[in-house]
Write a structure and sequence with these properties.
Length: 256
Amino acid sequence: DEQAAVLARHHAGAGNAEDAVRWFVLAADRAEAVSALIEAITDLDQALRLIDASDGTAAELRLRRGRLRGRTGDHPGARTDLEAALRVAETSGDRTLEMRSRDELGFLVAGAADYRESVDHLERALAIAEELGDTTGRVSALARLAITWANRAQLDRAQRSGELALDAASVAHDELLVTVAMDALKLVSLLLGRMADVERYGEELRRMYARRNDRWLEQFVDLETAFVSISGCRFDEARERLDRALATNRDLHDDG
């Protein structure tokens, strides 16, 4: 949001670092809410320049910037941020921050096909989530393990992890967590050839992502349901879905 960014720069220029950081973070919140990921990263860059790197707030902001960098294809920058957040977590004994940092690192390196390291981070994140009784952390780690196992062609493990994630999300009655679990099961179902399930998950997820304007995840719904269209010889529908996924990808500058 331009007004928040303007106010942030005003406070920064006046030497009011605390207020400037608050407004830059708000600007990042608003930018991310409309899938303006590059703008959100820029706002976080500005906030981080005003904070001591050893401060706990800096670690939280680097974790967030790392996640956004991963979504825009800047994997080296994302890894630098996430590893910095993890170091702070380990040094300070912040188990929640460690869980979240490992969860994001595991997801990031899986995207680079380093599945061994991915599983290590995600299993450690899962263990911490279970230790803390953190349902959000547990669902996220299980869902990402499902995706990682699927990409390693260990589909039995993938299915089991995805089902555990969905069970935990359903018990929590949390729609956001349900989407996390369903997104993982969508990929597992695709690799198992269960096209009706892929279409069903895709329809539900598309509605959920549209409600919260999450275009980054929505692109994968279009990509993966296009295979359902192809399998049914609905080639015009497949092209439409692939074109939409590609257009979204380009709009978001997701170069990875």
